[in-house]
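Readers of this paper often ask what the protein records in our data store actually look like. This encoding replaces a full spatial description with a residue-level series of whole-number codes. For reference, a complete record is included directly beneath this paragraph.
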Amino acid sequence: MSITLRVNDNELFAIKNYAKLHGISVSDAVRGAILERIEDELDISIAMKAYQDWQNDNKKTFSMDEVQRELAL
């Protein structure tokens, strides 16, 4: 599958130079940037959910010893 991405001359120059600097194709540079952004946003969403759960659980924490005992480590 292919997609078309419209960029202005300055953006294209920056993308091409980034790809050249890293020894990758423009396609790989754009794909990598988009997938990294998606992963970052997913990580933020997961972290925000965990933080909300922690707040809702009266900010309960566990010591390393407690975690190791629970996981039989």
Summary: The two ends are 46 Å apart (CA to CA). The helical segments are 9-22, 26-56, 64-70. The mean pLDDT is 96.
